[in-house]
Amino acid sequence: MEWVRRPALTRALTAARDARLVVICAPAGFGKTAAVSAWSAAAEETRPFAWASLDEHDNTPAALWPTIVAALDGVIPGLAGQRADLGHQDVEGVVLPRLLNAIAARPEPAVLVLDDFHVIQDQECRRQVETLVDRLPPTFQLVVISRAVPALPLTRYRASGDSLELGMADLRFTREEATRLVRRIAGVHLREADVRDLIARTEGWPAAISLAAGALRTAADPAAFVADFTGTHRLVLDYLSEEVLSRVPAATRTFLTRVSTLGSFTAPLCDEVAETTDAAEVLGELERANLFLVPLDDHRRWYRFHRLFGEALRGELARTEPGAVPALHLRASGWLSTRGLVDEAIGHALAADRADLAAGLFAARWGEYIDSGRLLTVRGWMELIGAQRIGGDPRISVCAAWIAALSGDRPGTRHWLDVAEALPYDGPLPDGSPSARFALSLLRAFFGFDGVPAMVAAAETAARLEPDPLGAWYAGARFTLGYSRYLTGDLEAAIEPLEEAAQHTTTVPAFRTLATSVLSLVLGALGRTTQAAQLARTAYRLVETRGLPESGTAALADAAWGAALAREGRHAEARLVLEPALALRLTVVGLSAWPTLILLIVLADSALGSGDAETARAFLGQARDLVATERDCGEYIRTRLTQLRVRLPETPAASGAAEPLTQREQAVLRLLRGDSSLREIGHQLFVSTNTVKTHTRSIYRKLGATSRDHAVRRARELGLL
């Protein structure tokens, strides 16, 4: 196999001159021998190297030591003449002392290399090599090259600082090294993206990169070849079969292929899937044997296979036990689901062609993941299960509607609501909802996409359909009832359901935090400022403690805390809380408008309280734009916005426009100030690009403008912005 210079690796080895023992341990094809050869030939390395290449015949003391003595002949003058004495049967009593005396008698430094040390399985041989290491003089260094972790007291050597160990991670090729090797072997200059892909697929395994480079010589499309280079490629499969798998016992090989169905694994999971009882011992042996096993923690509990090795094993499994694959995935799904590892359990259920099982897991556990801020994970489940399967199951259609709503996908929300309502389903849902009708009512009340009056009606329905305080979603129903009443201005009536939800101990934490936040806003509006501040601080800390600054829970908690700070006159601190929360919500078009409106109202109120009328006017303008896009914000919000506008100082009357701008044209005009395209403005206003173009042309005509910048400039001159 051709090679490339690896100066960084050579420097690391050369710098370890004071280490009594250097261990280079990695699976086949990681360039262990090549690295030491390059080190011995480096200009900065002046010591001579004695090289003993070991094989299976050296696995006895009588064979091992003559091989080592023969290797040392070239660096220790006169050693050849002592070979008869050193061939004595008593290794520890005669051979080792004489050999060590000969080594000590050499004044110049030297290095002894024991290559392929993994072939030495004899306990006496290993103990004798340990004795050699312990008694080596400072002038001599022993280098052990091995595929398996050598049975030497490495922990003791590490503790004394007497060793250097290099493993798979240290020997992986870098992007630059892979580029040079491919260029040297194939004469091909890969694009940087293709080199990154090759490194990711091979995990820097030098032998695999070399094999790929050889095949690239004749590849018509190098990028396509790299994209198709996996562990089942014939070159990789042949190499692994000859160099690795052929040396593994049949029982271990079966264990490996069955466990390869797992992305990551631990011993109990392996026992469940492979139907064994000794997986912990087998994994320990595999790790010591360096059989492409990658630890995932520092406690040797979870592992994965090297990517190409895992792919090769799965290819072997498909060839030898194709009928067993679904059962293996099914056993994995069962084990993982009982331990709360739902993401992995769903993937294995689908791999077992058990969409019904995957759907059940999804429908039962999605809420927990959403509550912990893992919306992307749950959306990934939806993609795995597929729209066709979701559309045929009312249980997961309801979940899909929730996930679409949380993602700001209003068309998707309406689609899945329609699907779920059209599918007959009686009885509770797997997530604990008492019925599909309850779940859909709660969703409508939670997001309020149909306007505040419809939100109130949906909340009342949800509260009526879940009267059981022990129900999983009882607090959610009570929260939406109080929340919707707050948005209508029925503040006194909002208190009781919000208090009940905030004090509920058996619900998901998000509902308690949401209820605490809105209760703070209600009490603040009623003048009960001390209690409101205490509740706001509690809600804000709950969000911070749970590490969910970007969750839907955070916006209302931020609004409550910002309002409390503003009431205390701490306006600068309030804006530091409120403005990032607002900016975050505005990054996702289509989210529920009401938390965003609450943030804008609190921000405008705080800005007016600090005397910053222009900032207040800007926040009120954003609020008006948002209200214009919603179906019905309700009388209370309209009143609050009017009250804030009344507090604004007078602005010069607009003049010079032939016609006044409509409310929607004003919304478009405000968005024309930024960098958003017309298409992006349409997304923000929930209208088509053509509609935005129509409004823009009308704005130009009314303002006498000829361009976007001109229109914004004219609007400022006229006091419209």
Give the structure's gist in a few sentences.
By secondary structure, the chain is mainly alpha-helical. It starts with 6 loop residues before the first helix and ends with a helix.
CATH class of the domain at 468-638: Mainly Alpha
Count of alpha/pi helices? 39
Bulk shape: elongated
Strand order of the largest sheet: 2-3-4-1-5
CATH superfamily of the domain at 468-638: Tetratricopeptide repeat domain
Biggest sheet features: 5 strands, parallel
Mean pLDDT: 88
User: What percentage of amino acids are in beta strands?
Assistant: under 5%
List the helices and strands and how they pair.
Elements: H1 7-14, E1 21-25, H2 32-41, E2 49-53, H3 61-72, H4 83-86, H5 91-105, E3 110-115, H6 123-135, E4 140-146, H7 154-160, E5 163-166, H8 168-171, H9 175-186, H10 192-202, H11 206-216, H12 222-227, H13 234-243, H14 250-259, E6 265-266, H15 267-274, H16 279-288, E7 293-295, E8 302-305, H17 307-320, H18 325-338, H19 342-351, H20 355-371, H21 375-385, H22 387-391, H23 394-406, H24 410-422, H25 436-447, H26 452-465, H27 474-488, H28 491-502, H29 509-525, H30 529-545, H31 552-567, H32 571-586, H33 593-609, H34 613-629, H35 634-647, H36 663-672, H37 678-685, H38 689-703, H39 708-717
Helix pairs in contact: 1-2, 5-6, 9-11, 14-17, 15-18, 18-19, 19-20, 19-21, 20-21, 20-23, 23-24, 23-25, 25-26, 26-27, 27-28, 27-29, 28-29, 29-30, 29-31, 30-31, 31-32, 31-33, 32-33, 33-34, 33-35, 34-36, 36-38, 37-38, 38-39
